[in-house]
Amino acid sequence: MSGTGRTTRGKAHGADPSELASDIAKGATRHDHIVEDIRSLIVDGRWPPGSQLPVETDLAERYGVSRMTMNKALGQLAREGFLVRRKKSGTQVAQPRAESAVVAIADIRDEVRRSGRAYRFHLIARRMRPGREEDALLLGAPGTGEVLWLQGLHLADDRPFCLETRLINPAVAEGAKDQDFSALAPGAWLLDAVPWSVASHRVRAVNATVTEAKMLELAVGEACLEIVRRTQAAGEWVTGVRLLYPGSEHQLVANFGPDAGGGASRG
Q1: Range from 5-9, 70-74, 148-152 carrying the lowest mean pLDDT
Q2: What is the rounded distance in angstroms from the CA atom of residue 252 to the CA atom of residue 97?
């Protein structure tokens, strides 16, 4: 779902059931009518991103349909990207999906701000420690020498946007030891302070573990987008990072040309 056609007018905290239409278009099924009606309320901005929908039973009563019919209609809108449905928090209007280029190393601050939301970084943990074998398995970073290990949460309008787990090589990234990263995210600092020459990406879909789901405020097992990246400078590794995004709020984009040879270019 593209966010370009949305406005931010309307109620800030919840969707008003009085706005729902009651007339069923000629020839349309009740299911089609519900889907089209709610989709229109979202697209024209009457139900802005983040709005909480009334509970399913109330919506079913308002439309004069069974709860099963209502559930199917909301499920279709969720699959189309208009709604986000979670067990504990109910159904909300989805935020416009943020986009990342497949190859370009983007600043997550910019990803959030392009979607019209306020950005903040929250540092969860920071420590110096010896490299471990699992570092090489997870991040492609050598499991020897001293490393700076960090974990933090990128927030959009104070809601979890991306969980970051990062290793930095302090022998190459000079000054990293002196940064506390309590306000400035390590990725943003590295982009400005440390030049790199080679980068590799791995992208896949994963399911949120119990710990990850708690941090990202998701249901356990909910689909997420995982990006694992390693950068090098002069043959030495600079950083390895694992970025975990809620799948319902993020997508990757790539531009291709006739001479691209199957590779992705900067988005």
Answers
A1: 5-9
A2: 10
